[in-house]
Amino acid sequence: MTATSDVAAQRLATDDLLRSVFRRHAAGVAVITGTGSSGPVGFTATSLTSVSARPPLLSFGIGTGSSSWPALAAAEYVGVHVLGEHQRELAATFARSGADRFGAPTAWRPGPHGVPVLDGVLAWLVCRVAARVPAGDHRIVLAEVLTGDPAGAGGPLLYHQGGYTGLRD
Q: What's the CATH code of the domain at 116?
């Protein structure tokens, strides 16, 4: 059996260690949207997870310091958008602090339950928030899928090593 790394080089748990390890973990990219008292809000997430098929539940994490958190802390419904590899700029816009996320060139429309639905994504869902679970400086949001559309074209956008990329054959 071959070791993949030197066990003697191990490091104690820190936020830097966690970030360094997860930079090596490729993750799908999603944008989560909602509506707050000041209008639409949204952020880029790589923490999207399928939780249950019956009932259809998913989860995502959001930092409590995020500008979107106050609106999403109170939102009853959220939009979940799976981004395609052609949407690197959209992912960057929703990840950038202080950006006008819903201004041009972002194309979107009000969807079911008033949730902002982004155009041109691989798939989207509208969900009812079922729970918000404290997890350190984040909240894990559990949401029940109500409706959506999986019919977008193209390959998925991935986040890896601090940047956006697509799948390679």
A: 2.30.110.10
Tell me the per-residue pLDDT of 73-103, one tens digit each, with 9 for 90 and over.
Answer: 999 999 999 999 999 999 999 999 888 999 9
Query: By three-state DSSP, how is residue 49 classified?
Result: strand
Q: What is the rounded distance in angstroms from the CA atom of residue 130 to the CA atom of residue 132?
A: 7
Counting every residue, how long is the chain? 169
Across 9-114, the runs of DSSP E, i.e. the strands, are: 27-28, 30-36, 39-45, 49-52, 57-63, 77-82, 108-110
Q: How many domains does the chain contain in total?
A: 1
Omega of the bond leading into 40 within 30 degrees of 0 (cis): no
Pick the closest to residue 46 from 138, 112, 109 (CA basis).
Answer: 138
CB-based contact 139:64 (threshold 8 Å): yes
